[in-house]
Amino acid sequence: MDYFKQKERGKLIYLYKEYNTNAFLKKAEAYLKIYPDDIDIRYKRATIYRRLEKFEEAIEELKYSLNIKHDSNCLSALYFIYYHLNMYKEALELVPVLYEKGGIDPYSVSITELVMKKALDIPIKVKKGTRGDYIRTQIFSYSSTLAFEHIQEHLYNPEQEAKFNENVDVAYLLNTVRNNIDNSKKLNINEVLEVHNFAIPNIGNNKGNVCNYIKVVVVPNTNHVVTIYPTDSVIFSKVSDLEYDYNLLFRKEEPKVKRISQIDKFNSRYKRV
């Protein structure tokens, strides 16, 4: 690598790490005119375009790079952009390459493939007992009762690091979140399912840290909540407001009932199956 290229590349990498977006984009434009085949810089520019929600520019950048040579970072980035934008047909065309050459772990590919094929009514076979069986079950045939049981683990199970405060009514929380999903914007991140963050002061704790937010995971393009748990780590600009009744969410007295009674209560109140 010649000295000039090495020097300019170093500046670009520094700007990228410092999240100096405007300076990076301006400098990358000039740099890539001289060194158009620098895949790593193109990949970094694509990630910035996505962060800015300039999806068309990001896609073109990644496709250009992949036409030069196979790069696992560019391939996975392009796949997740297609997936995020519900461009399922385009994403599915990349699935065989991902299984063959990697870039994304096979489990994540299998879950996203399942979501897309279910949405497009494409038949798919799944082996029982495989990793992520709960998620696969919820994608195939959603059950509010099963989701409620799963979310309650963050209330009763001492092994859970992220735990709700003991007076949180999980049944009310689940139903409220489901009714608010349509008013929330999903996070623009690489995840196999759709993720939303909502603000709720003092909702729980994570490893002793007070949590004022919840992370909500849903089957993409639905209000089918797969899990909810408290979090103390969010991007503040990506947090949605949640409309809820404080007195209903935080019970004044913790009812002394068995877990199965809580589940029956949930089914009776919201009549979900």
Structural notes for this entry:
With 273 residues, the protein is α+β, with helices and mostly antiparallel strands. It has helices at residues 3-17, 21-34, 39-51, 55-68, 72-84, 88-101, 106-119, 133-140, 144-156, 170-180, 246-249, 259-270, and strands spanning 162-164, 194-206, 209-218, 225-231, 239-240. Strands 1, 2, 3, 4 and 5 form a five-stranded mixed beta sheet that branches. A hairpin with a 6-residue loop joins strand 3 (209-218) and strand 4. Helix 1 packs antiparallel against helix 2, helix 3 packs antiparallel against helix 4 and helix 4 (55-68) runs antiparallel to helix 5 (72-84). The N and C termini lie far apart (62 Å). 31% of the residues are buried.
